[in-house]
Structures are given as C-alpha cells and as structure tokens.
Specification:
The chain is α+β, with helices and mostly antiparallel strands. The protein has ten helices and 17 strands. The strands form four sheets. It has an eight-stranded mixed beta sheet with strand order 10-11-12-17-16-15-13-14, with helices on both faces. It has a four-stranded antiparallel beta sheet with strand order 1-2-7-6.
Length: about 400
C-alpha cells in the first residue's frame, strides 16, 4: 500500500540524514497526506542546499542495503537506541515497556515503526521538497528546536483533503476557515443532504435487520446503554467534538458517528464481525483488519481474555488481520478496520471493541465511523475527480 511505501521512505530519509550528520537526534519519521517526513534535533542543522546530498544517500541505501524487519522487546529496544546515541527515540520506546515492538533495520540504522513497512521500494522515484523548522519539542526540561525534512513520490499527485473534494462536489463545507480553533459545523448543500440522508436510511435498515433497536439519546448512546438494560442491541448517532477525533474531515469539527452496543458471549462477537465486514463490502470499500493492542500500562482489567475472544472470532470468521500497537489511548481489546481511498491512503473505519462484564462481554462498535468521511470516500470512488 502507498502508506507502507511512504513509511519506508521516511525511515530511509532518517537513515540518510544520520549518516550525513551522525549527531542528529531522530524525533519521528512517518508518512503524511502530502508524502513522507522525518523530524530531527540538530547540533548543526542541515540547510536547503544539502537536500541533494541527502537524496543521493537515500538512493544509495535503497540500492545497497537490505531492509530487515523484526521484533524486539521494548526495554531492549530502548537500551539499543540509547547505546546508538538515539536518545529521543529511546525515550519514546519506553512507552511500550513489556511489549514486542516492530523494528526496521537499514544498514547501521535502526528504529521502530508502528505503521506498516513496504520492503520493496527499489523502483520508487521520489523527491525531497523542503526543510523547515516546526514547533519545538520539550525534552527533559529543555525546549528542542525541531527541523523537518519533507518528501513525496515523484509521480504523486497533490492529494486534497476529503473536505476539499466535498466542496468541489458541492456536498459539504465548514462555516469557517480550516485553521479555526473551535469545532466547526458543516454546511450541507442540497446534494450533500440527499447523500447524507440516503446513507442514514440505508444504515437504519441494515442495523434493524440485524436486530438492533435504533434510539435517539441526543448524541450520547453510551449513556442510554448504561441507563436501560433493554433492548439487548441498540444503535444511535453521536456527535463528537473533534479536537482529537482523527476520523472526521478536520481536526476541529463535529463529526457524526454511528454507535452500536450489545452484550453477549463469543457467538455475539462472531455475529458483529460478520456484520461489519458485510457493511463495508456493501459500500464497496477496500479494507484491512487490525487487532489493536494498547500500550501495556493502559490496558483494562480482563484485557487478555477479551483479546483472546477477538482473535478467536477473527480466526473462526476467516478474517485476515495484522497485529498493531495503539497509541490513541484505548484501554480495551479492539479490532479496527482501515478503509483505503483511491489514492492508496488508509483511514480509520469501523471498529469492534470488547469489555469483560462478568460471564458476558460488552461490545461497542461502529459501522461507518465518521459519516462525512464515508461520503467523501464513496464520492472519490465513484467520481474520482482530477486532483490538481
């Protein structure tokens, strides 16, 4: 997938910079909607005219060094990074204490990555775009200046946010600038209203056919579940204040998200996974499943038993999945489905979360997650407008 290629290029970028500037401290290396990047704390920062040398070193690493993937206990990983003078990354690795962490090795360079890695990047052409300073990092009581180097695939089109595509197709737009610090309310145009309402009607038909009772709890379906024991399966819509809600169109808008709850044993888990996969397939979206494991210190009581239930259900339903660590703050065992847009980027889609409650389990799930995001994905799939 595109995200795997971009993640790999970010690590190769980090390796090249550290080769050329051995005292550089890597802070982060990852993909973004624009391409890939690596952040550093420098004693002697690189400058723009050195980017060709960095790109040349990246090409040498791609041609001459094998990309090795393995796993390492977080404590050993942190110690290894510290011994190799990557103090910042060693500090971040400590968060995963007690866990096996995926690691990548490129020649002498060594790092960890919670995002997928694509080993075969020999035939990928890329460019380095710019080098600039971003927000400082507070580390061990000091504010460190952070320098970011950004790159992109040479043939990568400028990818617009779903919000921009929605505006071009006259579906929805915010009532203020995208940088506005407060949650934004979306204005729905007539075409957008028709699409939105049709999808909501379809969703209601699907959940009622599956035995869920649709309730209206003024955007607090979980509170309804806690107050009323019946019906056993309920479904509703929640409006999420989106300051840190990554599944909406923006980081600061109120996303409309469907929320479903049920109780039951392991057969209920099988049914709910079937239901999610059936829904994604009806929508015609490409997907991948991940079994998320929270950082050890944040796991709920009964986490191990709940994770076992999810893993067994995935196996019984023959749903292929990968293990992935979660840094989003979840405490419970969770299966998360990512959906892919036409450009190859993954977005968080449906999920199923489980919590132990006596002899039974409590399940929380979403079929669509962000309603606005799903509409944007469907429009992209069907219209695939030219991206400038």
């Amino acid at each position: 997938m595109l995200t795997g290629q971009l993640t790999t290029l970010s690590k190769i970028l980090a390796a090249a910079v550290i080769d050329l500037s051995p005292k550089a401290q890597l802070v982060n290396a990852a993909y973004s909607r624009k391409g890939f990047f690596a952040d550093f704390s420098f004693k002697d920062p690189l400058i723009e005219k050195q980017l060709p040398a960095v790109r040349a070193r990246m090409n040498e690493l791609i041609r001459g060094e094998e990309i090795e993937l393995s796993e390492m206990m977080a404590g050993n990983l942190s110690q290894y990074l510290k011994e190799n003078c990557q103090i910042v990354r060693a500090h971040f690795a400590k968060k995963h204490k007690g866990d096996l962490v995926p690691v990548i090795k490129i020649g002498p360079f060594f790092d960890y990555s919670l995002d997928p890695i694509e080993k075969n990047v020999q035939n990928i052409s890329f460019q380095l775009l710019k080098i600039h300073t971003i927000s400082p990092l507070e580390f061990r009581g000091h504010m460190e200046t952070i320098v970011r180097i950004e790159g992109a695939l040479s043939n990568q089109k400028k990818i617009q946010d779903h919000l921009e595509i929605g505006k071009e197709l006259f579906s929805y737009e915010p009532n203020g600038p995208t940088a506005f610090p407060e949650p934004l309310t979306l204005f729905w145009h007539p075409k957008g209203v028709r699409l939105r309402d049709q999808l909501i009607r379809d969703w209601q038909a699907w959940v009622e056919e599956a035995g869920f009772a649709v309730v209206d709890s003024e955007s607090n379906t979980l509170s309804y579940r806690k107050m009323f024991a019946k019906p056993a399966r309920i479904a509703g819509w929640d409006r999420c204040d989106n300051e840190n809600f990554s599944n909406g169109l923006l980081n600061h808008h109120r996303a409309l998200k469907d929320a479903l709850f049920s109780r039951g044993g392991e057969k209920e888990c099988d049914f709910l996974l079937q239901f999610i996969v059936k829904t994604i397939n009806i929508l015609g979206l490409k997907w991948k499943a991940y079994l998320l494991r929270p950082i050890r210190g944040k796991r709920s009581n009964g986490f191990a038993a709940c994770e076992k239930v999810l893993r067994s259900a995935l196996d019984r339903e023959k749903i292929p999945f990968e293990m992935r660590f979660s840094e989003k703050g979840e405490r419970h065992a969770r299966v998360e489905f990512s959906v892919e847009d036409p450009f190859g980027f993954e977005w968080t889609g449906p999920y199923l979360m489980i919590e132990e409650q006596g002899e039974l389990y409590s399940y929380e799930l979403t079929l669509l997650n962000s309603l606005e995001r799903v509409i944007a994905l469907l429009l992209e799939e069907q219209q695939n407008p030219e991206i400038h």
